[in-house]
Amino acid sequence: MKHNPRYGLYLIVALSVFISFFPIVWLILTSFKNTAGIYSWPPQYWPAPFTFENYWKILTETPELLRYVLNSFIVGLGTTLLTLAAGGLAGYALSRLKMRFSTGLMVLILSVSMFPPITLLPSLFQVFVKYGLLNSYFGLIIAHTGLFLPYAVWMLASYFLTLPQEIEEAAQLDGMGFLRIFTTIVVPLSWPGFVATGLIVFIFSWNEFPLSLVLMTQDAMRTAPVGISLYPGEFAFPWETISTATVIAIIPILVITAIFQKQILGGLTAGAGK
């Protein structure tokens, strides 16, 4: 009897999907449980009773959550725009300008992103204090841009390499300069790559924790991950509050991903095809 090797692959894929999505599903189900259901033993897999009390309580009694979400959105959007602008120009230069050390420079750029963010905090905190950048959107946007820029440069440069250069060469013959070619020809052709890179940078910025914790010390300026992690519990850890707040905080990410899923897939597959 022959065994179909695809069954093993299907099993691996199914197991991977289960391991990836089970924590998210459990988090969502927990947000609909009451306190007794959360701490019950054996564990209560399906909420009984199924209640929206946690959502009503967190929206009425902890209005600062919406402020945290707004802060994350502002920082994420600013980081994405600045990273795409700088990363796009740098990536295009690396992919088009014939430099002897372009490969080594790309490796150097990627190696910078390998440093843990926590190692940058002491010196970065001193700089922020000196120039008054603590508890400011601009300061955290600059910090996040420096953190995620190497990834954007690498991803966009890989995408630019897949574009035909004949159009750019014809534009050069017509007298167009580097910057004009980039803004009027390369950017429109690379729209899927920019969308994919931008969304990934936005998600990275939204979920970033160490820099946001140290550089945003005022409660009104905290981002969603930091604010949710600091929800206090007087006698026990407030799992119902944490789970509900987390579900609310990830809704914007899910909506954006659903809207731009075609561009994301197109950008990632095209960038990996070279």
**Average pLDDT for all residues:** 83
**Overall 3D form:** globular
Content of β-strand: under 5%
Return the CATH topology of the largest domain: MetI-like fold
Q: Provide the number of structural domains.
A: 2
Low-confidence parts:
none
SSE ordering = HHHHHHHHHHHHHH
CATH class of the largest domain: Mainly Alpha
Structural class: mainly alpha
Cα distance, first to last residue?
42 Å
Please give the share of residues in helix.
over 70%
Q: Please tally the β strands and state the result.
A: 0
CATH superfamily of the largest domain: MetI-like
Reported for the largest beta sheet, the result is: none
Continuous helix count: 14
Q: Kindly report the oligomeric state of this protein.
A: single chain
Quickly give the CATH architecture of the largest domain: Orthogonal Bundle
Show the helix and strand layout:
Elements: H1 5-31, H2 35-38, H3 53-61, H4 64-96, H5 102-112, H6 121-130, H7 137-160, H8 166-173, H9 178-189, H10 191-207, H11 210-215, H12 224-229, H13 239-259, H14 261-271
Helix pairs in contact: 1-13, 4-7, 4-10, 5-7, 7-10, 7-14, 8-9, 10-14
